[in-house]
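Tutorial, part two.
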Amino acid sequence: MPTVAVTRYVTPLREGGSLPGVVEGDDLGTYVCKFRGAGQGAKVLVAEVIASGLATRLGLRTPRLVVLELDAELARYEADEEVQDLLVASVGTNLGIDFLPGSFGVDGQVSAADDEGARVLWLDAFTANVDRSWRNPNLLLWHGDLWVIDHGASLYFHHGWRSGVGDPAKFAAQPWDVSGHVFETCTDRAREIDGEISAALGRDVFADVLAEVPDGWLEPVPGAETPDALRAAYVEFLLARLGTRQWLPGGAG
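Running the prediction step on this input gives:
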């Protein structure tokens, strides 16, 4: 991902539990910044990059990602103490998500053309994303098109790696609850196109996606002390998941 220096903190997005903020970069772009110093730390940023990379490869629209370099000087001019503490804790590299001006959040029924809904549901089931209900759809409409955002609640298994990388088979066999999902009605179609989607993924694709994750966000754990070792662990977990269908509502198509 390209690296962009943050030049101005614009405003917090207080509807997000981790207090993301809108910032401006030295490339004149505007981004939603997910801070490394918030809540669950860098692992949320890793999940965002992986799930966004998979979404793109499944033909879904998701905003462009960049690495945002945050300087300590930025916090000096922030009056809000909560935001100031977050900026101080996040000095260094953070995740930037391209801001889509004029977009608006989906808060009611939306039609999913060309199997979009089924692909979103398949992706969420595969990555164990529990955060796309009507209470919090994490969908945007921009210029009439559907965009998927906010994947930080995916790939929960890595939060249990403090004592070491676990068994990929456990994640592979973990079921996923479709009830309440925005595209629950697309369950049958997701099974029908399961073979097509699965054929587009594999070890090389997963390795390419993990290559996009910056080294600094891949914090060492017992059994995977280097960024490359952690990337390999993620690839094995994704491969194991791809080889099963307990997570796909109703099973394979």
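Helices lie at 42-57, 81-89, 116-127, 168-172, 187-192, 194-199, 203-211, 227-242. In part three we will examine how such features are distributed along the chain.
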